[in-house]
Specification:
By secondary structure, the protein is α/β, with parallel strands linked by helices. The strands form 3 sheets. Strands 5-2-1-6-7-11-10 form a 7-stranded mixed sheet, sandwiched between helices. A two-stranded antiparallel sheet has the order 3-4. Helix 1 links the parallel strand 1 and strand 2. Helix 1 runs parallel beside helix 5. It starts with a strand and ends in a 5-residue tail after the last helix. The mean pLDDT is 97.
């Protein structure tokens, strides 16, 4: 069974974050919701109260296959401020493990130098922060082990791509049909 960690922080865009958690869990991926805010209790960007499974600092990343950074303001800068989140993203990217980010969060990857020479996307308001990347204005961009998406409007295709990567195309197709996503 594949394993993923989805980082949440105070101000995370809840739909981007929870949609990824939901679709990965439907695919039987073991998902840990990890708080990057020092408390398991998080308030999202639209004031939804969420309880994380663990603090980011408590997670054993040794057998995790993918880490995911949702967007949102101030969620994205809060993720960027957490050393466990940034160190884990760097370690995963450099070792060939999967790293994914959506909306504003690809800017965190860019600030860490992880998008240098890669294709990527982000929310239109953050595309200028993808220094070193070839920016594409499309829903989902996969470049090697890094996957990015441009925002909540691309959250379903983004999550389905992550399912494809961790559970296979047949499972992604099954879930796409089960949720009646016809695009």
């Amino acid at each position: 069974m594949s394993k993923a960690v989805v980082f949440f922080a105070e101000g995370t865009e809840e739909c981007e974050a929870l949609l990824v958690v939901d679709l990965l869990r439907r695919a039987k991926v073991e998902v840990t919701v990890a708080s990057a805010s020092g408390s398991r209790e998080i308030v999202s960007s639209h004031k939804v109260h969420i309880t994380a499974d663990a603090l980011a600092e408590e997670v054993d990343y040794s057998d995790v296959d993918m880490v995911v950074l949702p967007g949102g303001i101030p969620g994205t800068p809060n993720l960027a401020a957490n050393k466990t989140v940034t160190d884990t993203c760097v370690s995963f990217a450099k070792s060939g493990k999967k790293v994914a980010a959506i909306c504003a969060a690809p800017s965190v990857l860019a600030s860490l130098g992880l998008l240098e020479g890669r294709k990527a996307t982000a929310h239109a308001g953050f595309q200028d922060k993808l220094a070193g990347a070839e920016v594409l204005d499309t829903e989902v961009v996969v470049d090697g082990n890094i996957t990015t998406s441009y925002g909540l409007g691309g959250a379903i295709p983004f999550a389905l791509e992550l399912v494809r990567q961790l559970a296979g195309q047949a499972e992604a197709n099954r879930i796409q049909n089960a949720i009646a996503y016809r695009h």
